[in-house]
Amino acid sequence: MKSGYPKLTIIFCCMVFATAFTHAQSTSQNFPTPVSSNEIIGTIKARDIGDSRLTSYFYAVEASQGDLFVNIVTRNFTGDIDFFLPAGLRSLTKVVVYSDLSENETGRLIYLRKTEKLLLRIQGRTPNDDPASFKIKFAGSFIASNDTGTAAEPELPKVAAQEETNTRVNSVGTIIGILPRPTPSPKDTLAASIENSEKQSIPLEKTEGAAESFRPEISEAAITKKTPELIISDNLPDKEETVASRRKRAAAARSKAKKLSEKETQTLDSETKISAVETAETPKPKPIKRNKREPKEKLPDPLENIRLVILFKDGSIIERPMSEVFKFSVDKGLLTVISKTGTIGRYSILDVAKVTIE
């Protein structure tokens, strides 16, 4: 009995490895995940509300000549499952799946004329908030891949949330919530201010040296020079003396103003006399004769010899030169003649026999 346990464990391990599935799921068409077992199991997470994007996984499936059997089981999955030839992405088969309350199971048979490496694309989403699951089994001419040296899929750029905003946003951009910013303690603020002041402070040795280097030279004469002293005397003049002195100053200012005004009048009189003498001595300028332009001869108006002749049925005639006629027209049975002077003549067209220009 004891000898049978090791055999059972070995058989169980073989079954587990035979039905193993690949955990890696590539989202890049250029770097598909090689299928190293006859079964693929995967899930598709639900996206945020308003996000209409589809989730795509790519696998590299190898098969030899013959029939390749594919069994597909899905749950809560809506999308497409396609098999392509890598050269030109030629489609071999397409499976359209719609989600249902129960599991959906379907199968496909693909005939290959030679050994091929197919591209499997699983593209879809879940219609609700529950994740979607799929299971794909291969049989027939399927070959498990031993390609471990394939190039690794490059890492996609990740969008990291900034700590400054403290806002939580979903994939669509809708704000889910705003986290309150932590209020720093007074000890932390004091420590930060002390550190900043220490960084910004300059050593005293450098400042002292700089002050000594830029200190101006002061001469001994400037040092020994005394500052002016302010002397205040207590012997101030009386009020009566100050009033008399003010009156004297005002009288002197008036006499000076009179003398200046007399001098100015004398100078003005002398200047006027000199200017009169100069004007009498200087000869008057002769007027410049300008040649008057002779008026141009008026050209004869060519319309003077042309006349507008209106002959009435009763034999009367109206003749006017065209140089005097501004406009003539017929409107609503009336012949209207407008002259340049502004006079207007209206005649019934029933009375007019002939209108000529001669």
Task: Give a structural overview.
By secondary structure, the chain is of the alpha+beta class. 25% of the residues lie in helices and 33% in strands. It contains 5 helices and 16 strands. The strands form 4 sheets. Strands 1, 2, 3, 4, 5, 6, 7 and 8 form an 8-stranded mixed sheet that branches. A 3-stranded antiparallel sheet has the order 12-11-16, with no helix packed on it. It has a 3-stranded antiparallel sheet with strand order 13-14-15, with no helix packed on it.
- By CATH reckoning, the class of the domain at 23-143 would read Mainly Beta
**H/E topology pattern:** HEEEEEEEEEEHHHHEEEEEE
State the oligomer: single chain
- Main sheet? 8 strands, mixed
Average pLDDT value? Answer: 75
Helix content: 10-25%
CATH architecture of the domain at 23-143: Sandwich
Low-confidence stretches: 1-6, 8-23, 204-214, 230-234
The percentage of residues in β strands lies in: 25-35%
β-strand number: 16
